[in-house]
Amino acid sequence: MKIHVAIVSDQILANLIPALMERPDKVVLAASPEMIMRGQDKRLAEALKRAGISCELLDSAPDVDIRNIHKYAQCLRDLLVEQYVDAQIVLNATGGTKPMSLGFVEVFRGKASRIIYTDTRHRRIEALPNGDADIPDPEPMRDVLDVTAYLAAQGLQVLSSASDAPDFLERMPGRKYVARYLAENATRLESFFRTMNAIADRALDKDGNLVAPTQALNYPPHPKSIMTEALNELAKAKCIGWTEGESNIYFIDAERTQFVRGGWLEEYAFHVVRSANPFDAMMGVRVCMEGGERTQNEFDVLSCYGNQLLFIECKALKFVEGQNDNELAYKLKSLGDAARGLFGETWLLSAQPPSATLKERARQARFKLIGPEELPKLRNAVLHWMKPTE
């Protein structure tokens, strides 16, 4: 029998990942009163139970006063040794306060078969010195968390995903090329994006329904212009109805109008991420807080690799200095922090040049800003994210 002893903290992934990798028969959770008050012990227990792993929640563990911590850990150690005579006991010393971690390590050293530390940043499990035995090499993490499980560990419940919808799966392959075309030519298409965003907005009502499908450009585009080229690509992919030389554009349905309005960038990002073969990737993910208010949020693209989360927000709109750029930066920081925890990354893909304010907000909030000139190299950025930190 294998038993994991884990000290609960705010970041529950450090306890969850080794348990999902090793599949112990039981996980014993020691949580301080503060962690119990925040519900972190129950969240971790629920994540383990969803994975089919039994767990036991203990009474409040002291998080200050090393004497009390030692006494608590000794009682727990003796109880486990007595109750499970032949069990392999693994202490996960990653969580809790520093006094808790140090105290548990002192008490369990020589009694536990292994003492481990989850190095989430470098995606590996370290083994701490345990008596006179040699220290084993770090164990690389295996992928055990998909997007849904990762979000659940952060307290977010997935309600739906556009990339799982049958109609999306049917239409997506046919417009993959045009999404890539628009992204790879974004630096030349700035005025085209603004024009198409404006007329698509006129075609839709405030609820996103298509109410005015026929929209007119100010004049027919020149036959050899980049606008004609881009419109032809959209028409070829059956995203719009348009005949070269005419000024009228026909929007076919609300979903394809949203694609023209900026959804193409979201699909481009999703295609690029999937082509890098991560452990999991989803697009258009609607979530709400588990067990709390039913306020919903939506993530454009989410991917898991190495048990870390990549959150990509996609914007094809024009940024107005000090207005929508500020609002977007705040949203990215709050949603990114809620979904990722301490690890993983948040990126903003922008089809139009970002404002100076947005660049500064990105620096302050530590999210990656990928502008139009960098969109063609997005796959390189994804592959770099997937590489373990040295």
List keywords for this structure.
single chain; 390 residues; alpha/beta; Rossmann fold; Trna Endonuclease, Chain: A, domain 1; Arc Repressor Mutant, subunit A; 3 domains; seven-stranded mixed beta sheet; six-stranded mixed beta sheet; 14 helices; elongated
How would you explain this protein's 3D organization?
This protein has 390 residues and is α/β, with parallel strands linked by helices. The protein has 3 domains: 2-142, Hypothetical protein VC1899 like domain (Restriction endonuclease-like) (Rossmann fold), CATH 3.40.50; 158-165 and 263-386, Trna Endonuclease, Chain: A, domain 1, CATH 3.40.1350.10; 174-260, Orthogonal Bundle (Arc Repressor Mutant, subunit A), CATH 1.10.10. Helix content is 41%, strand content 22%. It has 14 helices and 16 strands. It has helices at 13-22, 33-38, 40-50, 66-83, 98-108, 147-153, 166-171, 176-184, 190-203, 226-236, 254-275, 324-340, 356-365, 378-386; strands at residues 2-7, 26-30, 54-57, 88-92, 114-119, 124-127, 139-140, 156-161, 214-216, 240-241, 248-251, 280-289, 296-305, 308-315, 345-350, 368-370. Strands 3-2-1-4-5-6-7 form a 7-stranded mixed beta sheet, with helices on both faces. It has a 6-stranded mixed beta sheet with strand order 8-12-13-14-15-16, sandwiched between helices. The chain is elongated, with a radius of gyration of 26 Å. The mean pLDDT is 92.
